[in-house]
């Protein structure tokens, strides 16, 4: 199965690679295959930064982790209510 990596992850990985200078060390730290990292390096950090900037301009602002956790909690509560209603409905 092919992995999909977000641009911000690629940027972070390439910045680390520039600091450390070791492809294998960076690949191990971020759990990415060295050949994948070498491909990203050929494409270039600046290109991924440009792509990330384009994505953030076209998409809505990213929601905070807190907002997403609240939404998950609300959906879990809704699911619990629906399961309970289904049990009551099918018991009758």
UniProtKB/TrEMBL annotation:
Listed SUPFAM superfamilies: Homeodomain-like
Protein's name according to its UniProt entry: Transposase
Species of provenance: Deefgea chitinilytica
